[in-house]
C-alpha cells in the first residue's frame, strides 16, 4: 500500500468517525427534543388543565348549585382533558369526572330543594378527588418521562464521550504516525544525500516498503550504484575525453590559440605553432604580450584586441598572407570571448579568448576564378559582338556581292548562336544556384533522334573546320528514359567542344551501345587530350584548362551543366583521355522499363 493510500484511508477514517459522532449527536438531540415535546403537549398540559379544574371546583365549593359559570369552565377544561388522554388509567378518571359533572349539572338545573342542597357538596368533593387523581396520573408520568429523558441524555453523553475519546485516540495516532511515516524516510534520504555529496556512494537507503518512499529508495539506490560505476570509470573517461578533445584540437585545419583573462597562452594547436614558426613548448604558458614582441604574426593577431572597437577592428582586418610549404595561403582572423558563470558571485565573468586563423585560400581562389570568369565572359561577349558589328557594317555596303552577303549572314548567325548558347548556360547556372533544380520531361526517347538533332545543329561548325562526323548507332538500340531537350543540349555541347579542340580535317566519332540497364553514348575526338589530373576539374564550374596553343575555351560552364543534366536523369557523365591522344566523353542513360 502506498503512502498516498495510507493518508487517504486515515483521513477517511477520521471523516467517518466525525460523521458518526455528528449523526449520533443529532439523533440524540432529536430524541430529547421529541420527548420534551411529548411531555409538554401531553402530561404538562393535562396538569395545567387539572389546575384550572381545581380552581373552578374551589369556586363551586362556595355555591355548588348557583355558580354555573364555574361549572362551565370546569366542563371546558374537562373536555380539553378528554382530548389529551395519554396515560394508562387516565381515560377512566376522565369518564368518571364526566359522569360526576353531569350529575352536578342536573342538580343545578333542578328546582331548589333540600335534597339538592344535600347532594351537591358530596358531588363537588368527588369531582375534586377525581381531578386530583387525574393530576397525579399525569404528574407521575411527567416524573417518569423526565427520569427516562435524563437516562437517555446520560447515555448519549457517555456515548459521545466514547466517540470523542476514540476520535482523539485515532487523531493522535494519525498525527504521530503519518508525519513520522513521511519524515523518517526523508531523514534517511537526507542522510544518504549528505554522504553522496561527500563522495561516499555506499550509504544506500533500506527498502522497507513498496510505497512512494520505497520507490524513491530504489531509484536512489540505483543512482548510487550508477554513481559508483561512474566514479570507477571517471578517470579513464576523463583521460579518454581529454585525448579526444586534444585530438580534435590538434587535427583542426585552422590555427587555434587559447588565452586566459590575463592573456597568457593556455593552448596552441599544431597548425598555430606551425604558422607562428615556434614549438609548442615555446608558446604554451607564455604571456602573449611578451611573445608578440618577437613574433610578427602574433603581433598582427593581437593588434585588433587593443583597438577601442575590437569587433570592428577584427572585421576590418585584412587577410593574412602567409607562405606555407612553398605555397601562398590566406588566413582570416576570428576572435571569440570566453565567459563562465561564477556560482559564488552569481555573475558571468570573462575568462579568456580564443583566436583562430581560418584558411580561406580556397575562397580566395574561388574569388579569383570568378574574376577570371567575368573577364572571360566579357571577352567572349565582346568578340562575337565585335564580329557581328563589323559584318553588319559590311552588309550595309550595297556593292558587296551576293555570295559574300550570304557568307557574312552565316557568320552573323553563328555568332548569334554562340551568344545564345552562352546566355543559356548562364541562365541554367543561375537557376541551379538559386535552388530551382532542373525541370525534366522524362519520356521514352530514341537516341537516334537525339543524335540527329545534335549533329544537324553543329553541322555548320563541322563544315567550317572541315571535320567529318562518323556516327555508329546499332539497329536494335533500345529506347531510353530521358528528357529530349536536355539530352540533345548535352550532346551538342560535347560535339561543340570536340569541334573546337579538333584539328582541321579530323574525324569526330559518335557511338551508342547497350550497357546493361543503360545505353552508353560517347563522343570521340583527336584533339590535344586532357591530363588525368584534370579529368574531374573540367566538370567544375568556371574551370578552364588551356591547351598547347593557349586557348581557354568558353565560359567554363558547359560541362558542369551537362553533368547536372545527365545526373538528374539517372545517368553518369565522364571523360577518358590522355595528353596527345584525344578525348572520349561518355554518358549513360537508363533504358525504358
Automatic annotation (TrEMBL):
For this protein, what is the EC number? Answer: 2.7.13.3
Residue span(s) of domain HAMP: 180-232
Domain PAS: from-to ranges: 241-286
According to the entry, every stretch annotated as the Histidine kinase domain falls at: 376-593
Q: Which GO terms describe its molecular function?
A: kinase activity
Q: Where in the cell is it found?
A: Membrane
Gene3D superfamilies for the chain: 1.10.287.130, 6.10.340.10, Histidine kinase-like ATPase, C-terminal domain (3.30.565.10), PAS domain (3.30.450.20)
- Write down the PROSITE patterns for this protein, in alphabetical order: HAMP (PS50885), HIS_KIN (PS50109), PAS (PS50112)
Q: Which domain of life is it from?
A: Bacteria
What is any Pfam family matched here? 4HB_MCP_1
Q: How does it sit in the membrane?
A: Multi-pass membrane protein
- Transmembrane stretches, start-end: 6-27, 160-178
**Catalyzed chemical reaction(s):** ATP + protein L-histidine = ADP + protein N-phospho-L-histidine
Q: What is this protein called?
A: histidine kinase
**What organism is this sequence from?**
Hymenobacter cellulosivorans
